[in-house]
Amino acid sequence: MNNQNVQRDNDSRIKDGLVIKPSNIRIWLHQKASGKLAKVIWAGQGMRLRTETSHHPKMKRFLECVPHVMGVIKDIHQAVVENDLDTLKAKTASPTPRIVLTSKDANGLTPLHKAAGLAHTQIVEYILSIWPSLSSDEDHTGKTPLHWAASAKNNARSFNLLVQAGADETALDHVWNMC
């Protein structure tokens, strides 16, 4: 494996231009940049923080919380897959910050991507009622929840909810855009 492939495997870029790689994580820990480190978790890359350490009390507490936050994210994603609206509501209730609904899994899918693709319309409706702009969020391949909704059978309701929330019906799936 050449250096370029290793570099690509160790790096991830998130929407706002942050490059998630081990050296940047260590820099952010040193700078006590908890906001950037939180974005690592929301981007589905929390496992990259599991091996990190810090002697600074604030960063040490942050890193100690990472497994718990990752567990909550996993529970939320699982509730969506299982179409369990009650569990989703319980896991996203206060004091849990609403930003947890923007969390991605390792494949870059948000709970809304999953709900839309699985035609779980009540969950789509719930998530959009809290965070409508998620209707335009892209996964790692460039697909929006609308793309996922369009690919599911009998999913006109989810599709329409996403469009009403502001999803762009003309957005191209980047996979097809490469052809």
Automatic annotation (TrEMBL):
Pfam families in the cross-refs: Ank_2
SUPFAM superfamilies noted in UniProt: Ankyrin repeat
Record keywords: ANK repeat
Native organism is Aedes aegypti (Yellowfever mosquito)
Q: Which InterPro entries match?
A: Ankyrin_rpt, Ankyrin_rpt-contain_sf
- Which protein is depicted? Uncharacterized protein
Q: SMART domains, per this entry? A: ANK (SM00248)
ANK repeats: from-to residues = 107-139, 141-174
User: Keyword Transport: yes or no?
Assistant: no
